[in-house]
Amino acid sequence: MGRHYIYSVKQIMKKSEIIFLIVVVISTTILFFLPTGYENPDLTKDMRYEKSKVLTVDNSGLRQISIVITGVQEVTLKIESGKFKGQIVSAQNHLLGQKNIDKLFKPGERAMTILQLNDEHNQIIGARAAEYYRQDLELLLFICFGGFLILFARYVGLKAILSFIFTALSFWKLLIPAFLNGYNPLLVSLSIVFICTLVIVLLVGGVNRKGGVALLGTMSGITITAILALTFGHFFHIPGTVQEFSEALLYTGYTYLDLSTIFISVIFISAAGAVMDVAMDISAAQHELISHTPNMARFTLMKSGLNIASPVIGSMTTTLLFAYSGSFMFAFMAFMAKGTPLENIVNKNYIAAEILHTLVGSFGLVLVAPLTAIIGAYVYTWTRKTSTLKY
Fold first, then answer.
1. Closest C-alpha among 266, 224, 225 to residue 245
2. What is the pLDDT of residues 166-180, one digit of tens each?
3. At the N or C end, where does the chain have fewer CB atoms within 10 A?
């Protein structure tokens, strides 16, 4: 009777995971084809964006003053994609003296070229070398990432890739359009993060107690992180325009956007991944403990979870410090080179924003650990009859 019961539950769990996997695959497919509502056919009506190879360059039209280069670089290109593949065109590359956006092409390099077409769309009337063509390399990098993930994690790695794609599409097709439409950033962000967390945790952890504990722990941690971000974000008085490209949105007509609240939302979105890692680590560890010691007392399991959490949150907190401060390393170098006092640095908008980012995210990590350990202790020992099941 007992063995039959265990077998039945295992079969139900397997069926649930298969059904959930199918639902996620269908949802991901729908998201892929779902329009954002911000497609602009006029941008490609008389233009084509194609890959091309740089054959020759003419730098005689460039002017250099110290380290600043301005002017026009004449480039000869061979089109390598689209209906005009094989044609050779002359294009221009405009340099504005801005190091963050300027590029200087060399023969043999690939360029993303914008072709201007005539009214019949059968002839090129102008061309511009817009960017380095990186799409092939980006795709290759993703394939290598996915290949190694599947090689080492096998079936779990395949599900991890699916969750990765689902999350990326959710951000691009749901989160960003909702922001642009002026919906409440906090509600939208929490909803999308909760949905993505549900998919990631249950795909990777499984539709079982391990996945359930990790899911509950993650959601509780993200909720607390959101509350902390909202509270301290208000007192920090950091404007939403501290984020790069935020002013560009205002200048293009999106003056109705609540950029400050969007910035607060970005804080707990950024911390969600680390919070999820901690919750999954503790849940998986407690699952192993109760699987090998079915009669372990609830308090003992809880204490073990807290002991496991201590080194995990210690290392993850430092991870957030590395991740966030790394993006501002050049700013810190510039301040130090000028001898700027530390008091001046830490009170600047964008530095204070990173401090808020790091500390609120770390606070969420510290709190999610005990919460997951407590949740896991109760869930795994809910009934002794089911706690002996190894799933």
1. 266
2. 999 999 999 999 999
3. N
